[in-house]
Amino acid sequence: MAKLNPSFSKLKSEYLFSTIERKLSDVKKNFTSTRFLNFSIGDIALPLAPAIVKALCDAAEEMGTKQGLQGYPPTFGYPFLRAAIAEQEYRGLCIESDEIYISDGINSDAVNILDLLHPASQVGFLSPTYPAYLNSYLMSGRKKSLLIPCTEEQGFIPEPPKEHCDVLYLCTPNNPTGVAMTRSQLQAFVTYALEHEALLFIDSAYSCFVTSPDVPKSIYEIPGAHTCAIEWKSFSKSHGFTGLRCAYSVIPKTLKARLQGKKVAIHPLWEKRQAIKFNGVAYPIQKAAYAGLMPEGRAQTEKQVRTYLSCARQFKKGLLDLEQRCYGGVDAPYLWWKTPKEMSAWQFFDFLLEQCHLIAMPGIGFGPHGEGYVRLSTFSSEEEISLALDRLTTKVSPCILL
Amino acid sequence: MAKLNPSFSKLKSEYLFSTIERKLSDVKKNFTSTRFLNFSIGDIALPLAPAIVKALCDAAEEMGTKQGLQGYPPTFGYPFLRAAIAEQEYRGLCIESDEIYISDGINSDAVNILDLLHPASQVGFLSPTYPAYLNSYLMSGRKKSLLIPCTEEQGFIPEPPKEHCDVLYLCTPNNPTGVAMTRSQLQAFVTYALEHEALLFIDSAYSCFVTSPDVPKSIYEIPGAHTCAIEWKSFSKSHGFTGLRCAYSVIPKTLKARLQGKKVAIHPLWEKRQAIKFNGVAYPIQKAAYAGLMPEGRAQTEKQVRTYLSCARQFKKGLLDLEQRCYGGVDAPYLWWKTPKEMSAWQFFDFLLEQCHLIAMPGIGFGPHGEGYVRLSTFSSEEEISLALDRLTTKVSPCILL
Question: Does A141 sit within 8 Å of B264, measured CB to CB?
Fold first, then answer.
């Protein structure tokens, strides 16, 4: 009988979302008229910007004409979008448009890049971090992995490991902690990578939220990064594209690694991988992304980003006023909240759900070092957050929380 | 230094398209006012149907409102689309909506399914066939493969191999030969699969073009298929979606294989794979696909399919009138043309390009058994094909062709 990939046995079942759903539905039965406030999902809360809606419609109508017919998109993305990204997002950073590869999401890029790695590579992952990197790594049957802890003592900032790694996945501003790495902290990883001839995979999904002056918005602001780093960025959070699916990889031509003993550029392998396994992103989606980079779309979407950041500040201030230990929220729309009274992540999740009708994300879903925390997403509104803080302040005695 | 996947060395460089481009550009220099007719690419030639354009615009506008906000799509597809496919495409075939998984293309599904297979699986591939299956298999580092020839003597219909395979990739109606398998021919493969406890992966990208009464439009018309077959279908050719990207996998719940000695259903593994590695298809694209299944969109797109088929008939008749050996074109928009005078595929490509200013696809791009053939795509127009046949008939002496 046909045999299946044994690595699937190593993957934890995705209890997280189904458990949240089950617990929520149980509690809702007893509170049928209560408004539940959901801060668990990192998904947009504002409608698509008008300039993006218009671009989608225009592209669709264009495709309905003989002159505007569009078939298979170019595998690496339309030149108009690649050029606009190089010009708008990488001005002065020495990234050319043909070093930018359009995709349907960072999630895809971050897991698909594994196709390029030697099976025996030693790969380092942050803990806590976005779980798809490690899960797809385990699914591929690879075994040599290293967890790099991000603890409260370190301010949740990772340090380059003492051990050798061939590849390191970083996520900054980090999901779930909401903490971003400064220039010097990133420089330490670039220095590590150059010393170890390692590759850095940088998930910059949240770079549009960066407000701290010493936090780079791109790894390519760091000297040396062009020879060791791949960066992923997305339109999901910067332009409200979670429901549209558009992101990109940046693979500088100067980035090299060893293929059967020979030092070779990496981008031709990615191009081959994509040519064989991917057929590109829909034309209207790429036109919409382009519109988001132009002045009108940029102004509209930057306003959305400021709204989410303002929610983060409001929520964080409220929690700090309640004397909570709460991190992030400055350069990212996430708060990382230490559970009070040594509660586990799930115990605190239950407490917030049952007592305040708030839904948080248990930190344990992001790796072992997420235990003892919950993540709050601030893709929300001032009104929702005020309501949440009211409940936390008035309905729940602060002494329970401390 | 970080090491790359050595399997990339085994992949042939993609000379095909770049060679075609180079040859075309060389010839064009000497014929600046000539109209070149391109039959090489299997891509749509008609604009998006009005009902699909409207659905795209409506969805975009909906997403621009507070009530119509759409974030991350469901990983497996929106229930409205999965239900419509089950109802419209699988009526009476015992396929439920939750056995249908929406994706961005058959290419993605056909290569991603490899994640589920045991590394030591023996996998059979047709020759000639769509090259992504084998290329992605080689990229994954797997080695146990078997080529199943489709020769002129067999009418390009494959036969179940004598050897054991754990998995067989079939493509029917076939790209590139344009030949489709009948009920009894498919039954032979289902019988093989049941005897060998093997899995069948059926690429049905061109099923909407089937006109022969004894050719099934779905593998699930064959008894036993629900316990051995995964089927892939796409909106690309049936609904003009190559520029929009929407397709689906059908994985019946009754489909099982062995995971570490235990017989298990396959669909939970696919669900896990997709949950980790894929974030779903854009909302407007799924709404557009849905519109294509409703009466108005269906009528408009079925007319497009009839146009492409009528082109195929016209072209085939013209070639047969010129006493050429030419196959396909009845159940698919492809013609498979035996090169005259024992020319190689590339020699005949050059002849057609230089003498008739026609661009064909050299059959060798689809595997070793494609040598000695070219593929003509009939995503075209009556006018273009008349012009092509005129050139073949009058400008080129028929004696050269024979």
Answer: no
